[in-house]
Automatic annotation (TrEMBL):
Family: Belongs to the glycogen phosphorylase family.
Native source species: Pseudoramibacter porci
Key words, A-Z: Carbohydrate metabolism, Glycosyltransferase, Pyridoxal phosphate, Transferase
Cofactor(s) this protein requires: pyridoxal 5'-phosphate
Role: Phosphorylase is an important allosteric enzyme in carbohydrate metabolism. Enzymes from different sources differ in their regulatory mechanisms and in their natural substrates. However, all known phosphorylases share catalytic and structural properties.
Gene Ontology molecular function terms on file: glycogen phosphorylase activity; pyridoxal phosphate binding
Protein name: Alpha-1,4 glucan phosphorylase
Catalytic activity annotation: [(1->4)-alpha-D-glucosyl](n) + phosphate = [(1->4)-alpha-D-glucosyl](n-1) + alpha-D-glucose 1-phosphate
One Gene Ontology cellular component annotation held by this UniProt entry: cytoplasm
Any Pfam family hit: Phosphorylase
Single biological process term from Gene Ontology: glycogen catabolic process
Gene3D superfamilies assigned: Glycogen Phosphorylase B
PANTHER family documented for this protein: GLYCOGEN PHOSPHORYLASE, GLYCOGEN PHOSPHORYLASE, LIVER FORM
EC identifiers of the protein: 2.4.1.1
Length: 812
């Protein structure tokens, strides 16, 4: 029994069964037993919304009258995943619904599978936002999301002839039951045109004219808290033409023009950019960035004024605008525009309010990913915003040159506008009171390298908040058997929001052979479940008694799926050379999408699939070695994959992965990390202890040292390692069924291996061997697994949110 269930509208199994049956029959005009799974899903979704809506309405009413501080996450991505099961668990119906459906002769998992998984994000950054919203609601904080309702989410990935093929993700085709359209809250966003000045009542006034208006229509999705009465909102904006009346234009010329402008407006929220690497300076992307910034701020400002007798005074004491990476950095000039142009604040006061309201999180140190917009593009698309950025920059440089007259080079470096480009990270840092990285090492690199000039000026602004993930989704819901086992062993305190560190009590059972056996049983079931999925989807048989060694994440050179693949080739070579040698059976599992324009990453996908095909069809490897690439990695398949893992591959080039969050999801499901000392792996190592993690390879410092001296000589490494030579030759000599991988070979051998794959190869092979040997000792392996679960509490996003609250937003 939970608090939520003690309330008046208590749901019982019998009531649920009655209501559900009635709802299905109303919707489908069929008896329950003749209804389709699709109608059953719709009925369940409607029942859930009918129960959430009154609580949501009450939350909205309270938020309107009370003046507690509100947090708004501005993010270009929210990778929310399927929501139905989460809502059911949050409502406290997690026992009622599955049992009730079973008694009605229905399968809960089949019904849940009808929900189209909304893919409104590329990877870690978007998923982090979803975990943060989940945690904030669980902890009763008023924190809301503000983003874009893309019509097409991240493409669906198919593998055809070993290669990635992208298919459009029309996730709204059959409607989405968890959103509420709010047309009366629509606002206009203005693009292009020109800005004219005029004296109005003795004040210089900026008038934006000849612009193209676009209507931003909000759709709200409820974000419910776990077993509590909090329901926050995720607001996603849809772009529409301002006036559909234009479409009725009476002559053909006008009609075509009107239709054109309709599709131009709609194109803004048409598609999520599928690139997680490198900055793409497309005009449409800039339009998207301003779109949700402008629309979101307008509503927040309007709401605040309504609550405060038409004034924005005191705004920064009550509102936090959190800028998630640089994509929403235009919050800074847009809020200045509202304050100065529309609300008549003086510049200095407006600037003070802006900086106090904004906080900024950086998610990458890859230089190619840092956003820089061409000045003329921004000036043409957003003329007034550009003027304000210029003025912010002018005043900033004036201050810096005054304070640090001898730091000319530095003052130039930190400029927002330089070399014909607007540097968005600089804008975000200068315009925010807080800047944070997402793991200790990452924050250190920001302070000492990426943003060192800013750190010298504003040391007090720099923070670290190590990422976290939602245990409610990635462990309690995805791995219910593990959750139950832990609750039976140490109680359920750890399942309460903010209490996950109580898992530490499990350490007492680390060497308990009874508990170890039960844990091993849970893992085995999860491996069987994944093996079944692999058989059904790929027609590949994997041995559930083999070690499940898994790397799932976006495909990127710095994440080094290639290192994993080269090692598998080496293992296969060994097996071929010595078929009767002792061998610990192993299944290597990969999943992840490559950006459609990222040729190298797509070659890596092809290589993995080619290797998999060869190995899985060789009778020599049967039951010993298999390789699987699971297509279309998304939040739903992730929920199946993490619980089945025994080894979590986190092998990025040290210094490149800001944090990683998959590492945390694996850990809380009992997988042991095999990784480099990078991102949050370092903190995982600190918490589990070096006996319970496998680390290898260069440190971030060593990588940086090589890079400062122009890199290293990959050919030297190759010359000293005949096994590696053999593998590299196989990439180009036709051994792989006639396929050759010259691009990969050239990057590693001729172009000096930017990501240190060959350099780390030998130490990776050693640690792989060691982990396989260790696996044979079940007792010590289970102990490692338990130590990982027991120490995963700190990697809950509840902890991250509590830190943001204490150090950055300072909510009481
Ligand atoms: C990721 N960034 C980091 N960006 O790579 C990862 O280390 C970190 O754990 C995670 O953020 C959360 O902090 C990331 O996912 C993107 O996908 C961007 C999306 C928008 C376009 C540019 C890439």
């Amino acid at each position: 029994m939970n608090i939520f269930q003690e309330t008046e509208n208590k749901m019982t199994k019998e009531k649920f069964k009655r209501d559900f049956k009635k709802k299905v029959e109303e919707l489908s005009s069929e008896k329950l037993e003749n209804s389709t799974t699709k109608f059953q899903y719709e009925a369940l979704a409607q029942m859930v919304m009918e129960n959430i809506n009154p609580i949501w309405a009450e939350n909205r009413r309270l938020n309107r009258i009370n003046t507690d501080k509100q947090i708004y996450f501005f993010s270009i991505e929210f990778l929310i995943g399927r929501l139905l099961r989460l809502y059911i668990n949050n409502l406290g119906w997690e026992d009622i619904v599955p049992d009730g459906l079973e008694e009605l002769g229905l399968d809960y998992d089949n019904i849940l599978a009808c929900e189209h998984d909304p893919a409104l994000g590329n990877g870690g950054l978007g998923r982090l936002m979803a975990c943060f919203l989940d945690s904030a609601a669980a902890l009763d904080f008023p924190a809301h999301g503000n983003g874009i309702r893309y019509k097409y989410g991240l493409f669906q990935q198919k593998i055809v002839n070993h290669e990635q093929v992208e298919v459009a993700d029309n996730w709204l085709k059959h409607g989405y039951p968890f959103e509420i359209r709010q047309p009366e809250k629509s606002v206009v966003v203005k693009y292009g045109g020109n800005v004219r000045t005029e004296m109005v009542n003795g004040k210089l006034t900026f008038i934006h004219e000849n612009y193209e208006p676009v209507l931003a229509v909000p759709y709200d999705v409820p974000v419910s808290g776990y077993h509590n009465k909090t329901v926050n909102s995720l607001r996603l904006w849809d772009a529409q033409p301002v006036d559909d009346f234009d479409l009725n234009a009476f002559n053909e010329g006008h009609f075509l023009k009107a239709v054109q402008s309709k599709s131009q407006a709609e194109s803004i929220s048409q598609v999520l950019y599928p690139s997680d690497h490198g900055f793409e300076g497309q005009l449409l992307r800039l339009k998207q960035e301003y779109f949700f910034v402008c629309a979101g701020l307008k509503r927040i400002v309007r709401r605040y004024k309504k609550q405060h007798q038409g004034s924005l005074d005191g705004f920064s004491d009550k509102i936090c605008i959190h800028i998630n990476d640089t994509h929403p950095a235009m919050c800074v000039p847009e809020f200045m525009r509202i304050l100065v142009d529309e609300e008549n604040y003086g510049w200095d006061e407006a600037w003070d309010m802006t900086v106090k309201s904004m906080s900024f999180t950086n998610h990458t140190v890859l230089p190619e990913a840092l956003e820089k917009w061409p000045v003329d593009m921004m000036q043409n698309l957003l003329p007034r915003i550009y003027m304000i950025i210029e003025e912010i920059n002018r005043r900033f440089l004036e201050e810096m040159n005054g304070k640090y007259p001898n730091e000319e080079a530095r003052n130039y470096n930190i400029s927002i506008i330089k070399d014909g480009q607007v540097h968005m990270a600089h804008l975000a840092i200068i315009g925010s009171h807080s800047v944070n990285g997402v793991a200790e090492l990452h924050s250190k690199i920001l302070r000492e390298e990426t943003f060192k000039d800013f750190y010298a000026i504003y040391p007090e602004r720099f923070h670290n908040v190590t990422n976290g993930v939602s245990q409610r989704r990635f462990m309690m819901a995805a791995n219910q058997e593990l959750k139950n086992l832990i609750c039976d062993t140490i109680g359920d305190k750890w399942t309460q929001p903010g209490q996950m560190e109580a898992l530490k009590d499990l350490e007492k059972y680390a060497s308990d052979s009874d508990f170890q056996k039960q844990l091993q049983g849970v893992k085995y079931h999860n491996k069987e479940r994944l093996a079944k999925y692999i058989k059904e989807h790929l027609n590949v048989t994997v041995n559930p008694h083999s070690i499940f060694d898994i790397q799932v994440k976006r495909i990127h050179e710095y994440k080094r799926q290639l290192l994993n693949a080269l090692h598998i080739m080496h293992v296969y070579n060994q097996l071929c050379a010595n078929p009767n040698a002792d061998f610990v059976p192993k299944t290597y599992i990969f999943a992840g999408k490559a950006a459609p324009s990222y040729y190298f990453a797509k070659q890596v996908i092809k290589l993995i699939n080619v290797i998999a095909d060869k190995i899985n069809h060789d009778p020599l490897t049967k039951d010993k070695l298999s390789v699987v690439f699971i297509p279309n990695f998304n939040v739903s398949s992730a929920e199946l994959i993490y619980p089945a893992a025994e080894i979590s591959e986190q092998i990025s080039t040290a210094g490149k992965e800001a944090s990683g969050t998959g590492n945390m999801k694996f850990m809380m499901n009992g997988a042991v990390t095999l990784g480099t000392m990078d991102g949050a792996n370092i903190e995982i190592a600190e918490h589990v202890g070096m006996d319970n993690i496998y680390t290898f390879g260069l440190s971030a410092e060593e990588v940086a040292n090589y890079n400062h001296n122009g890199g290293y000589h990959s050919v030297d490494v190759l010359q000293q390692n005949p096994d590696l030579q053999k593998v590299m030759n196989q990439l180009i000599d036709g051994s792989l069924g006639g396929d050759t991988f010259h691009t990969i070979y050239d990057a590693l051998v001729l172009n000096n291996d930017t990501y240190f794959v060959l350099k780390d190869f030998a130490s990776y092979c050693d640690i792989q061997d060691q982990s396989s040997r260790d696996y044979l000792n079940h007792h010590s392996w289970q102990k490692k697994s338990i130590m990982n679960i027991a120490n995963s509490g700190i990697f809950s996003s509840d902890r991250s949110i509590a830190e943001y609250q204490k150090d950055i937003w300072k909510i009481k």
